[in-house]
Design a protein that fits this description.
Length: 481
């Protein structure tokens, strides 16, 4: 029993130890028991949380137990929560006790930030289209959460809680955008949203390129995707200035296909509705930006979104078309459903003009990545060792994990075309990697990494909805590097 649990037990005349003795509370990892009577302890309800054996407790399992705990607390309907979960020690030999992240520099601060984040996350509910029901009884009541701190200085505790809350709010922004219907969340909608943010935050400057400019600049690959849609494609650039103008920016670039039918290479209809989530990379860029304007890191960051809709149409690109990219390289489009890499390659070339320190793109790029890593890890590919290790670390610390796949030259011949410099698909094998290798051809002037979030950005089935990933990873990366 943790120290606070012991105190409650004492005040409640042994209410918890009785339940433990009886075997109702086992303390196994992820076990949550709601005790609906405080037994005179002064609390109306107690939720006990199991973490398993302390020397076996990993960060991942700590976070899992937190999520179950807050979901259980929510179910009780209580509106005042006090969490004593910082008292749990994470002693697994594989878990470092310090240097775990940006602002939270030790595991105690980390536990507080994660509690603030997941407590807030547990209250997320999408209400974007529930006009009629969007009244007080539907909305989640506000919950007052208190975090007990034990081994953490109050000032750093406050900073940690603030960071956790900002990341949760960033996730909510990303989830809301992902969950919105594709007839509402169009490229124009995203451009308007960007302008709204810029109006509210003086540190942000927004520019939007429409199709006229995109076409005129020579982004033939972007246009090949966008031209079949009635919705105008947009390249959205949001510049956050947190440091001297001369300081080179970090760029994060999101795939914003607001609906992916596959185009002429049309997808089967079953679960095609889920292709509204094909802008979750863009959504994570907005979410990270929302967190950054709250936390104000002292660095320059460019938040970029390549937004378009992929539709079959008389004007759509066909398999066999050859287009010229902004880089000058030509691409043979063998499958119009491999559209993400087409909008991103031109955006990557365009971003060169900002002389970036590093570029990280985020994209629901391939079904193959879902096959490889499932919903557990985001696929990470990079042309730079240091950058990939920074992103992997940010994933581990934030509980928003990524796993690296290679971009070796041996894969490049899979993209050979008889008619152009490159084909836009690489055959049946290593699909996540060949998509990465395609993008790599356009990232020759800067350190670059690619996050394939096709498996992690949303869940299908009964719990269908956007997850907000990889906002926690991205914000951790942006704050600590
Ligand atoms: N947006 C999809 C990727 C996707 C598919 C994500 C299913 C999540 C679930 C992407 O535009 C796409 O269609 N990719 C193709 C590429 C293929 C044609 C080389 C794919 O993965 O099938
Ligand atoms: Mn596609
Ligand atoms: Zn797509």
């Amino acid at each position: 029993m943790s120290a606070t649990a012991q105190q409650i037990d004492k005040a409640g005349k042994g209410i918890l130890s009785r339940l433990i003795k009886r075997g109702d509370i086992k303390g196994s990892a992820g076990e949550c028991i709601t005790v609906l009577d405080g037994g005179g302890s002064g609390f109306d309800r107690i939720v006990t949380v199991g973490f398993g054996a302390t020397d076996k407790l990993t960060r991942t399992n700590y976070l899992k137990s937190l999520s179950v705990a807050f979901a259980t607390a929510k179910k009780t309907g209580a509106t005042t929560w006090i969490s004593a979960l910082a008292e749990v020690d994470i002693n697994h030999p594989n878990e470092p006790q310090s240097d775990v992240g940006a602002t939270p520099t030790d595991i105690e601060s980390w536990k507080l930030a994660q509690q603030a984040r997941l407590m807030q996350d547990s209250r997320y509910k999408f209400t974007g289209h529930m006009e009629g029901k969007n009244n007080a009884s539907q909305r989640i009541q506000s919950v007052k959460g208190t975090l007990l701190i034990s081994h953490c200085a109050p000032r750093s505790a406050k900073a940690s809680a603030k960071q956790g809350l900002a990341i949760s709010q960033g996730c909510a922004v990303a989830r809301d955008l992902g969950n919105l219907a594709p007839n509402i969340c169009t490229p124009a909608y995203l451009a308007t949203l960007a302008r709204q943010y810029a109006r509210k935050h003086t540190q942000l400057k927004v520019s939007v390129l429409g199709e006229k400019q995109i076409d005129k600049l020579g982004m033939g690959a972007f246009m090949a995707v966008s031209r079949g849609s009635r919705q105008e494609g947009k390249l959205i650039i949001m510049e956050y200035q947190g440091a001297a103008k001369s300081s080179k920016p970090t760029v994060i670039l999101g795939k914003g296909i607001t609906f992916d039918t596959g185009g002429i290479s049309i997808k089967p209809s079953a679960t095609m509705d889920e292709m509204k989530f094909d802008m979750c990379g863009a959504a994570s860029v907005f979410g990270s930006m929302a967190a950054c304007v709250a936390l104000k890191p002292r660095k320059n960051i460019i938040f970029a979104v390549a937004a378009a809709e992929n539709m079959p149409d008389g004007n759509a690109a066909r398999p066999g078309d050859v287009v010229k990219t902004l880089s000058g390289k030509t691409v043979e489009i063998l499958n119009t459903d491999a559209e993400g890499r087409l909008v991103l390659c031109d955006a990557l070339t365009y971003l060169k003009r900002y002389k970036p320190k590093a570029v990280v793109d985020i994209a629901t790029l391939t079904g193959a990545c879902v096959v490889a890593l499932g919903g557990v890890a985001t696929g990470l590919m990079s042309n730079n060792r240091k950058l990939s290790s920074q992103l992997l670390a940010a994933g581990n610390i934030s509980g928003d994990k990524a796993w690296e796949l290679p971009l070796w030259d041996e894969y490049r011949p899979q993209l050979d075309s008889n008619f152009a410099d490159l084909a836009n698909i690489g055959g049946r094998t290593a699909g996540a990697i060949t998509a990465g290798v395609f993008l790599k051809q356009f990232a020759d002037e800067f350190d670059w990494a690619h996050l394939d979030i096709a498996g992690t950005a949303w869940r299908g089935g009964a719990a269908k909805g956007a997850t907000g990933r990889p906002v926690p990873l991205l914000v951790e990366y942006l704050l600590s590097n």
